[in-house]
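Run log // design_07
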């Protein structure tokens, strides 16, 4: 669980997450998981935040059983697929989850 302070500090990023989730038609569970993953370890560098946000959405969709492709998420988040591919497993690990081995 994350503090209200975190949600306020990163409000604009979380609004972006919601817009991306809307484009992908993700469930409340996938959105909540993506939010938790993003807030677990928000990067300091603003340039990295969008990529971590997209990786969090991708990972959140997997955890919720709604797996969207990296390409679909990348398009919805306006990042490269490689940005997601290189980060999503780390996002899960930092949150204490084990990424799939495939």
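design_07 sequence
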């Amino acid at each position: 669980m994350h503090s209200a302070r975190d949600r306020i500090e990163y409000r604009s990023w979380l609004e972006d997450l919601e817009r991306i989730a809307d484009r992908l038609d993700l469930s409340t569970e996938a959105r909540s998981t993506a939010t938790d993953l993003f807030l677990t370890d928000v990067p300091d560098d603003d340039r990295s935040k969008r990529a971590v946000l997209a990786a969090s959405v991708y990972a959140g969709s997997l955890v919720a059983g709604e797996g969207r492709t990296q390409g679909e998420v990348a398009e919805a988040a306006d990042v490269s697929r490689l940005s997601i591919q290189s980060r999503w497993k780390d996002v899960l690990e930092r949150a204490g989850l084990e990424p799939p081995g495939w």
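The chain has one domain: 4-95.
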